[in-house]
């Protein structure tokens, strides 16, 4: 029996897409990227790239997927018959394998810390001891592999159930809970003495902190946090009906992503500065600084557990979308194969992730161009695959798909003005490809 699944409602799609976009990108990665790249100026550049590049790219992927109702590889074959453009989809699938292989490692860290927070194992330590605990945790081979496996199992369990019964159902529950927990933490963080120093660091741009790398990191973060560039949103939008308003849906996802990034910064940086700590901790920011912060607050154990639950929810909703793009390509419209494909693919990704999981411990000496395996995988996806994928998709949509098809998809179910399409088309055809190339060239120090 063959059939192409569809979302049961518009809100289900928006929450699932927003869940994919928010995830670790907005809650784990964004704070430490902002903390190590200038705070307010990074946030400003990130917003500009999100609106001028990320949002048009998101809409472009929506158009590709909804117009064909096919997976991330077949979509390009349908729109460009007899060409090699489907290699964009292949790039996306390969990048998704790599992405989920190291993403699940961080998911495992969260599972571990959530467990520790429930049993009171994250209290009464000094900052140095919290740092040592994190290093000890991620260096423990058995612990990180078991935690990573648990995270992968949860992801597989949801995805194998399908789009409606699995991903959409889970997203409708997890995303509202995420917002509620975020608001509680926001109130707690902003009421700390000295919190406004953190607010100023996060929201007040300092031009002197700009470096050539700031733009590449902000671009990578904008694409990473919206899940664009590797055709994840091509897959999700392929489950949409023709009557859905793609422009409004894209706007909703982008808006939610910026709001969550803002909330994330306003939860973390005020708390960090309130205790006189530094925001440039790096990837361990939420695992080292935040436990130390919450430990010094009334009911801190409860707030820390809430944050870890929030982080796990967000991480899982992103993991669903990454695994789904791979499963959809293999299953195509034969849903009878979904369960088997999801389990086999998930286990393969777990095995692929073992070097990343062990790269902070027994494999710490294994480096690629000076980077440990985990960091190399992250850099390859975030700073190479995503921008390259976005560049190719923008060229494909702007120069390969007939303008009439783009217009038809753009205005189906939409009442936006024609000028909105003209602006989007101009951005996707000319500005975005040039912008991505300039960021690349600048990051290499050539301009």
UniProtKB/TrEMBL annotation:
Principal cellular location given in the protein's record: membrane
Superkingdom of this protein's organism: Bacteria
TM regions (residue ranges): 12-28, 40-64, 85-111, 138-161, 173-196, 216-241, 253-277, 297-330, 342-364, 384-402, 423-444
Assigned keywords, A-Z: Membrane, Symport, Transmembrane, Transmembrane helix, Transport
Protein localization: Membrane
InterPro entries linked to this entry: Na/ntran_symport, SNS_sf, YocR/YhdH-like
Membrane topology: Multi-pass membrane protein
Similarity annotation: Belongs to the sodium:neurotransmitter symporter (SNF) (TC 2.A.22) family.
Protein name: Transporter
Organism lineage: Bacteria, Bacillati, Bacillota, Bacilli, Bacillales
């Amino acid at each position: 029996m063959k059939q192409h699944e569809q979302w049961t409602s518009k809100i289900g799609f928006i929450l699932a897409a927003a869940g994919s976009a928010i995830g670790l990108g907005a809650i784990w990665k964004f704070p430490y990227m902002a903390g190590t790249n200038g705070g307010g100026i990074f946030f400003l550049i990130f917003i500009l790239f999100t609106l001028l590049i990320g949002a048009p790219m998101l809409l472009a992927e929506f158009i590709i997927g909804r117009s064909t109702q096919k997976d991330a590889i077949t979509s390009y074959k349908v729109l460009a018959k007899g060409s090699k453009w489907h290699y964009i989809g292949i790039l996306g699938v390969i990048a998704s394998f790599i992405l989920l292989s190291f993403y699940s490692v961080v998911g495992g860290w969260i599972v571990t810390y959530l467990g520790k927070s429930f049993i009171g194992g994250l209290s009464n330590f000094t900052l140095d001891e919290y740092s040592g605990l994190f290093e000890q945790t991620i260096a423990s081979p058995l612990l990180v592999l078991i935690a990573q496996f648990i995270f992968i199992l949860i992801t597989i369990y949801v995805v194998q159930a399908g789009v409606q019964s699995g991903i959409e159902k889970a997203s409708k529950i997890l995303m509202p809970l995420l917002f509620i927990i975020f608001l509680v933490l926001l109130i707690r963080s902003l009421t700390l003495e000295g919190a406004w120093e953190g607010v100023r660091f996060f929201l007040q741009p300092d031009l002197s902190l700009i470096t050539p790398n700031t733009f590449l990191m902000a671009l990578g973060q904008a694409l990473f946090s919206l899940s664009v560039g590797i055709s994840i949103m091509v897959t999700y939008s392929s489950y949409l009906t023709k009557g859905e308003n793609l422009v409004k849906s894209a706007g909703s996802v982008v808006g939610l992503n910026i709001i969550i990034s803002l909330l994330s910064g306003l939860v973390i940086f005020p708390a960090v500065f309130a205790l006189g700590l530094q925001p440039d901790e790096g990837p361990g920011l939420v695992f080292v600084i935040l436990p130390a912060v919450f430990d010094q607050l009334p009911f801190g154990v409860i707030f820390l557990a809430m944050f870890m639950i929030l982080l796990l929810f967000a991480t899982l909703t992103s993991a669903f979308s990454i695994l789904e793009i791979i499963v959809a390509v293999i299953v195509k419209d034969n849903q009878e194969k979904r369960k088997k494909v999801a389990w086999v693919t998930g286990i393969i990704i777990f095995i692929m992730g073992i070097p990343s999981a062990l790269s902070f411990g027994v494999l710490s000496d294994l480096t690629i161009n000076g980077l440990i395996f985990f960091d190399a995988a992250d850099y390859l996806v975030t700073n190479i695959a995503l921008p390259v994928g976005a560049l190719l998709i923008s060229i494909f949509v702007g120069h390969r798909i007939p303008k009439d098809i783009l217009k038809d998809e753009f205005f189906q179910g939409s009442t936006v003005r024609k000028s909105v399409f003209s602006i989007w088309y101009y951005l996707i055809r000319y500005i975005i490809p040039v912008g991505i190339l300039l960021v690349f060239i600048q990051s290499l120090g050539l301009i």
